[in-house]
């Protein structure tokens, strides 16, 4: 009789405990094997938010979202007040949405915000709104003062070939640019003549071709525009995101 009671109780305990452990384990593994982060790049005119989701595992992943909104972005000022919410002026379909990722695959989303923020330090938080693998990342961001030399800068291209267009108004009719990935300078300082010093904005276009073997495996490729002072110091620096590699 004693052995019979033990036999009856053990399956009941297994039935109650096993499914819970299995479910939580899957959710935890999903989160541990996924990489999610945000890279904000700010100018005095706009902020580019690049969001990256990567499957770090050797097996496919499927994420489920309660609506068509996959992520949320918020920006807080130095006092902690929210000054921007990505979803605030948007409509999202209230349908279950799935995102599939092959092993080592990544997905990249880019959002832009034309802002009117005061110069200073801000905090950016990105949230992945997956039901089973909610992830978030927070980065500090500095919004510079209005740049007196560069404005309306736009970039296009990928894989090492890029075009950068904008308006420049350098004081001595010349500005410079470099390209770096945070560790290495891939394009050395190059001068551009605007052919004018009369205070008018000069439209410029820069074509870049970087060999694939020089591109970073992990990192962000950034073009830096700037001019030099009479003392040859770098001034009025303006960063422009070219591409992110992960």
3D structure, described in words:
With 246 residues, the chain is mainly beta. The protein has two domains: 34-146, Sandwich (Immunoglobulin-like); 147-246, Sandwich (Immunoglobulin-like), CATH 2.60.40. Helix content is 13%, strand content 52%. The chain has a four-stranded antiparallel sheet with strand order 5-4-8-9, with no helix packed on it. Strand 4 (71-76) and strand 5 form a beta hairpin.
Structural class: mainly beta
CATH superfamily of the largest domain: Intracellular proteinase inhibitor BsuPI
Helix and strand sequence: HEEEEEEEEEEEEEEEE
- Overall, the morphology is globular
Report the mean per-residue pLDDT as an integer: 86
Helical fraction equals 10-25%
**CATH architecture call of the largest domain:** Sandwich
The largest β sheet comes out as: 4 strands, antiparallel
Structural domain tally: 2
Over the alpha carbons, how many angstroms does the gyration radius reach? 25 Å
Q: What topology, given as strand order, has the largest sheet?
A: 5-4-8-9
């Amino acid at each position: 009789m004693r052995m019979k009671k033990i036999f009856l109780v053990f399956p009941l305990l297994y039935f109650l405990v096993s499914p819970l452990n299995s479910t939580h384990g899957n959710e935890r593994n999903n989160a541990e094997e996924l990489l999610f982060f945000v890279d904000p790049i700010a100018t005095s005119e706009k902020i580019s938010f690049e969001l990256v989701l990567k499957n770090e595992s050797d097996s496919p992943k499927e994420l489920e979202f309660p609506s068509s909104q996959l992520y949320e972005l918020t920006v807080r000022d130095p006092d902690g007040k929210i000054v921007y919410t990505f979803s605030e002026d948007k409509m999202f379909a209230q349908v279950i949405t799935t995102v599939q990722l092959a092993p080592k695959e990544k997905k990249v989303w880019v959002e832009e915000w034309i802002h009117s923020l005061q110069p200073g330090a801000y905090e950016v938080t990105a949230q992945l709104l997956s039901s089973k693998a909610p992830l978030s990342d927070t980065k500090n961001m500095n919004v510079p003062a209005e740049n007196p030399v560069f404005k309306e800068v736009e970039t296009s291209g990928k894989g090492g070939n890029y075009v950068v267009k904008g308006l420049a108004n350098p004081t001595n009719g010349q500005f410079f640019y470099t390209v770096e990935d945070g560790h290495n300078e891939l394009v050395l300082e190059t001068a551009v003549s605007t052919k004018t010093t009369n205070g008018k904005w000069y439209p410029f276009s820069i074509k870049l071709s970087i060999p694939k073997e020089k591109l970073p495996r992990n990192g962000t490729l950034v073009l830096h525009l700037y001019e030099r002072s009479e003392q040859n110091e770098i001034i009025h620096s303006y960063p422009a995101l070219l591409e992110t590699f992960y």
